[in-house]
Amino acid sequence: MKQSPYITIFLISVLFLAGCKKNYVISDRQRILFQYEYINNSRGEQHFGFLIDNTGNVLTYNNPVAWNFPDKDMKLSSVHADENIEGCTNTGKIIPPQELSKFSGYIENIASSKVSALKNSDTDAGTTQFICYLYSESNGEYKGTVIKMEGDHTCENLNFYSKKVTSWMKEISDNISIR
Length: 179
Hints:
- The chain is α+β, with helices and mostly antiparallel strands and 179 residues long.
- It has one domain.
- Helices cover 28% and strands 33% of the residues.
- It has 5 helices and 9 strands.
- Strands 1, 2, 3, 4, 5, 6, 7, 8 and 9 form a 9-stranded antiparallel sheet that branches.
- A hairpin with a 1-residue loop joins strand 8 and strand 9 (153-156).
- The protein is globular, with a radius of gyration of 19 Å.
């Protein structure tokens, strides 16, 4: 029995689309996409980093007086996220829209992937975290996902895009003044 070329084309299309990455659509209400954070309590209180908002602004913070950390499940209310944003300083650096769209397109894939086991790797080095956020309009919460953690403790998201996002965020960190 001869197979129709339309069925073959259809099956190839389905297989191709199944292998494509998911496209994450940013909600108009989602203000925070990425966070780079360094904390070291062994050398005095050191807490600094940056946020990247939904319009590409790079916002820094350095030992903020009030800061809302995500809970044990990495959740943060939109009210707390807004308070954190208000405590930041705008660097004037803006991620170009195409670049922001590219990297924010990886968020859902990274968020749906596993993270390696946490390992103790150093002492008194502090911890640097690279985090991305999904936002739920239904409950107004951000759900953070660790992309990578370095320093006293290390772990890494096992998603293919994690290394790309980490390198990108390190490059941003190298080109702004955080401290």
